[in-house]
User: Fold these one by one.
Assistant:
Number 1:
Amino acid sequence: MSVSDRVLSALTTVIRMNDKVEEMAGLMKEQQRRLDDLQGRVIRLETVLELALHRSSGTSGRLLEADGDVDPDRADECLR
């Protein structure tokens, strides 16, 4: 194998590797887009969950306060 054949082989290998690197970069961008989308969806779900939990605990607290028969020290037991 001559020196020129080795150089051409090395250049061919570098060009092939460059194509693979560019393909991988495109795949990584797509994965990052998917992760960002999923992160946004999780944030929205967390928000809905927090609002629902806050609303349900707020309603229970208001009902207990309206009912004068409940001992404030035992209010936690009533929620269970």
Number 2:
Amino acid sequence: MAQATASKGRRPRRKAGRSRQASGKGRTWPWLLALVATAGAIAAFEHKQEVMRWLPTGVLPLSKSQATADNSAASARSDSAHTLPVHPVQPVARPAAVPAKPEPGEMTGKGFTGTFYFCGTSGLDNCVQSGDLFWFRKQAINLADVVAPETEKARCQAERDKGFAAKVRLRDLLNAGAFELVDWPNSDEDPRGRKLRVVMRNGQSIGAQLIREGLVHGVSDMGKGWC
């Protein structure tokens, strides 16, 4: 009986020891979990760049400054879309066409101008040589619709005087303003390579004006003399 009593007395002590051990283990697990979580957080923070590199695009949260900037830009776009007026596109007026000026070397056209002298004092450029011949832009122009009296090869003094008068008058008419050079329908040049042109101003031939003033002959009267 004594042994039975003794054994019964020791059993509670063993149960109490196991209970204390179980209780001690139960109190240790939360501390272990907290320690593991803390170590994981420290490791993740120390290897932040490596962790972020493995995350897919768009997963990372925006910082406060980035979110504020994005919200401000979106608000500005929304405000501008509602407040800016839409103006219709106005047609652009085209400039008026400017008449083309004659190019140097082209001895046909309108709008020719220049200051003319007598040949021999200015060279063969913008000068009058006779009552039916002048140089313009270093090109000899022969009035195709008239025949003027001679000066150097005159048959008489009357022809020479008339030739000088025609020469002076042609210079004055060329200096009076812009003139037009019209092609002669029969030929472009005379046998000496001079351009055959009719000189016009305001629709009237300058050669015809010289004929009316009695200073030159028309081509149909080229056989008439001056003496």
Number 3:
Amino acid sequence: IANRAYLGLLILIGLIPWIGWIFGIVWMIVFGFNGEKWALENRDNKYRDEEEFRKVMGGWNRAGFVAFIIGIVLFVIAILILIFVLVFAFNSYNNFDNGYRD
């Protein structure tokens, strides 16, 4: 939105139940490859030249990479917590069941 590349808002179609997530994933890939080029080619952007645009986008690219890494780490932590909870739940169930069989 800040670079006036409003095609990125099509990602909101991903909110449609059942098929929206498929379009959302495809559109994230397409916009990921073309978004910076579309923002640079936009006549309404407020950058003096391509060098200034690249400098600003460099900061955003680093921020995006850090957010991606944090997302992966949080996803792995969530999976580990889920595994821990499931193991604990099944272990408790087996102990409970074995207590009544004896």
